[in-house]
Structures are given as structure tokens and as C-alpha cells.
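retry 2 of 3: previous attempt timed out while embedding magnesium ion. Reduced batch size to 1 and resubmitted. Inputs unchanged:
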Amino acid sequence: MLSSRPIARNSGVLSARRDAIVLAILITAVLLLIWNGSTFFSHVRIDGSFASDVRVASTALTLNVALILFGWRRYIDLQHEAEVRAEQDRRAALLATTDPATGLFNRKGFADRATQLCLEAGARGDNLIVISFQIHRFKSVNDQHGYEAGEWFLRSIAAALPLELGEEALIARLSGDEFAVALPLGPSESDRAEDLADAVLRTVARPLMLDDRIIQVGAFAGIASAPAADASIPDVLRRADMAMDRARSGRVTRPVWFDAGMERALIAHGEIEQGIRFGLDHGQFVPYFEPQVDLATGEIVGFEVLARWNHALSGVIGPDVFIPVAEEIGLIGRLSEQVISEALREAAQWDSGIKISVNISPSQLADGWLAQRIVRILAETAFPAERLVIEITETSLFSDMDLARSIVTSLKNQGMRLALDDFGTGFSSLAHIRSLPFDIIKIDRSFVTNVTAKKENVAVIRAVTTLAAALSVPVCVEGIENEEAYSAVVRLGGTIGQGWYFGKPMPAEQTRELLAARSRGEQPPLSAAANG
Ligand code: C2E
Ligand code: MG
Ligand code: MG
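retry 2 succeeded.
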């Protein structure tokens, strides 16, 4: 980005130097004129006639006058050039510090002006308040109403905010849908900061009419403050951003104040990120196996592979801690594949009737090479494709249905089976059951908790089992924790069950022992039904 200050300083130095040169030429010319003039007049005799060499003197005089006129003209031209240049500098400086779409400050302008504001506010003992806010679903304004409508919408907000926040507030657009406000407030005025942040949210969320369309969005806001005398603008802004992130992730519609816990959580996130990289290089991610039981016979028919992190200091860590971070930093594919590979190498030694289910994240399903990678793992581990079940969630299908369909078709062509995981959560729709060739539907465990107490849960499980039966697709019900849930699921037509009632996820060695004991007949089948 252009920086206004260096340009202005350079052009100032240049024009001062140029003025000095032109002035020196003019002074020299005037001195020459005086000297030539006196020479000329010394050739004029008392009776008015000229001495014989007067022609030389008059030529010198004429040249001198011409030189002065030329110099003067040049001076005027240069003066004009300087004005044009100064205007260009001013525009460049403006561009470097403002957002062209809204006329608000940009990040640089905001930082420059907020630093100035801190100098003044610091002397009064005030605090610097920064409100960071993000328009929720601004992209959908562009998508639904067009780019121009989006620009118009931003300009409308930019025009309305100063009226709400007052003259002293610095308002900036930092990126597409992110904005910040900085203003000084007395140490006891934190309530006012919240009122102003509320006003920002109200202003952004008011419905606007464009032709015959109503455009309305929401926003999330975070507030941070620091004593203006020693505030670092990037730090206060970062903290307000962190508070805004917290508001956004929790869908909090009120402004959220920054607190130190947020910074600690971010550091922990950074440590998890580093830890994941280290763990991947040192084989710390291992498969755990959760039994899947045939509800009619009580026999183990398969295992779901669930990743665990064998952390050197913290012990065994569950996937809710590391899967979201691994997804964010783009390592979920590597992590899952490492875990799947180890699981299949192990399970290749087990009873050939036992199926292995593995989880595929939405971001993995956006990778056009996924099918090839899984086929390679099968080849490397000598695990038959027919024994592998790929679990995908409905959310995975939304980002690119065509790509998902083509990956799934490749996997099925290789002989693998496909399960629809966590059915009933998020954007569930019975239509999805028909949209892809699923071989199994897994009902999310949230429907099984308190299944007997909640009529809606019973209704959902019954609707899914009925539709699945009509399509001849078996239903696996997750999260069966006790006898009561188990009986209810059997009554409602579940085919396969999974949950702590049958066994918690366990490491490979323990799974091997369980299977060995069962094959020796030392362990009864895992269901009350089979026990009689
Ligand atoms: P999921 O595929 O729905 O896995 C089932 C989750 O339910 C597992 O949690 C399991 O431990 C838990 N669970 C099973 N039975 C019960 C029960 O009776 N009661 C309760 N309260 N919970 C039960 P976990 O292991 O924490 O896995 C969470 C999610 O992480 C999984 O959900 C799956 O989506 C994801 N995940 C796990 N391992 C991997 C992996 O290797 N790759 C990918 N991409 N995702 C994975
Ligand atoms: Mg699963
Ligand atoms: Mg599940």
C-alpha cells in the first residue's frame, strides 16, 4: 500500500531545492541586468548619442531581459507543477489511509489517527475504547442482491454510524465485513462503551430498503479498553477482535467485553496447534475402537474407529479438543489417514466378518484425491475394501455436493460401504437419505439420551427406521448408554447399536483381547436380548 508520508516529504525537499535554484538564476540575471544596464548607460554620451561599441552592450541587455522573462515563466510553470504534485500527494495520502468504498478509515488510517487520539486522551487520563464488529452473513447480501447492493449497504452503514457515535469516534473498515471504532472515554464510563457498541449493532441490523428489496443483516461486536496513555493500538484492536470472535462463535447478539481468559484460550489453541504437528510426526494419534453390536443377536459386527491423542504430558485426549484445530490448520486429512492406516493394519488381523467404520470430516470430502488416498491405505494395510465403512455427516454434503457425490461413487465402486453419520443433527433431512447411496444410517446419540422421556425423540427414531426399512437400509443407533435406551431402540426398530452399554472406545490391544475372549466363548454376547 502507498504510504503518504514519505512521498510528501520527498516532494517538499525537491520543491525547496528547485525554488532555490530558480531564485538563484533570477538573482544572477537581475545582477547581470544591473551590471549590463550600467555598462549600457556608460556608452550613452551626454548629448544622447552612443559610443561605437554600444551595440554589444545593448545586445547583452536584451539577452538579460529575455533571461529574466524566461526564468520568471519557468518559475510560474514549476509553481503549477508543484501544486499538481501536492494534490497528487494529498490524494495518495488519502488513499493510503481511507477505504475507497465507504470513505471510512482503513487499517493504516485507523492506526495513525488512533495513535494521535491516544496522545490527547492520555493527557486527560482517559481510556481508549475499541469496538470491533463484524457484519453477519454480509456475503449473502452480495450473493442474493448483487455486488452493487452490497456496496450500497456498506455506504449506508458508513453514513449512519457517525450520527450514532458522535464526531470524536474514529470509524474504520478493516476488511470486507470487519469494522472498528475507537474513541476516548473516562475511566468510569464503561457503561457508555457498551451503549455505543449496542448502538453500532442496532445501526447495522436496521432493515434498509433498496428499490423494492429489504436488506437486513446482523452483527457481532467485541469491546476492549486500555489506558490511552500507554495503549498499543494493535493490541487493543486484537483484544476487541478476540471478544468479537467469542460473540460470533457463541452467537451472542450483545457486545462482548474482552477478558484475559480469551487470550489464555488463544495461547492454548496455539499450543494445541504446535502439539498436533509434533504428535503427527511422533505417532501420538492412535485409533480407539468402539464396538457396534447387532441388536438382534448381541454379536459384535464391527467397530467404529475414533481418534485419540496419546499426549506425553496430558495423557489420552479426546477428539473434541484436537479435531476442530486440525481442521482449521488443514491437518485433519493427514491425522485421519494416519489413524485409519493404523486401525486397518490392526483390524486386518481380526475376524474377517468384522467391519471397520472410519470418520471422514467435511473438509476431507472437499479433497478430490480422497478416494485414491483411501484406496492406497487399503493396499498398504491389506485390508479388504468390503470390510470398510466410510462415515460422513450431512454437513459434508453441503459445500460441494457434486464433488462429494463423485468421491462417494469412487469409494463405492471400490467396494466400500457408506454410512450417514449423526443423522438428526444440523440440517437433517430425510431427503438426504435418498440423495446418496448410503448403506447405513446412524442416528445421532442426542436422540437416544432420555429417549423414553422425550416423545419427539421417539418420533424421529421411528420415522427414520420406517423410511430406512422401506429402502432396506439398516439403522445404527449411537449412544446407547443403558438398558432402558437399549430396549427402546430395539422396540423402535434399530438394527445395530453402539454406545457405552456395549463398550466404550478402547485401544487396539484391549479390543484384540475382547475379540479373543469372545471367540473362546469366555464373553457373553453384548446384549440383554441375546442373553435371553
Ligand atoms: P462420531 O463419529 O459421532 O462418534 C461417536 C462419538 O460418540 C464418539 O465420541 C464416541 O466416543 C461417543 N459415544 C459413543 N457412545 C457413547 C455413549 O453411549 N454416550 C456418550 N455420551 N458418547 C458416546 P468421540 O470419540 O469423542 O468422537 C467425537 C467425534 O469426533 C466423532 O463423532 C467423529 O465425528 C469425530 N472423530 C473421531 N475420530 C475421528 C477421526 O479419526 N477422523 C475424523 N475425521 N473425525 C473423527
Ligand atoms: Mg462417526
Ligand atoms: Mg456419530
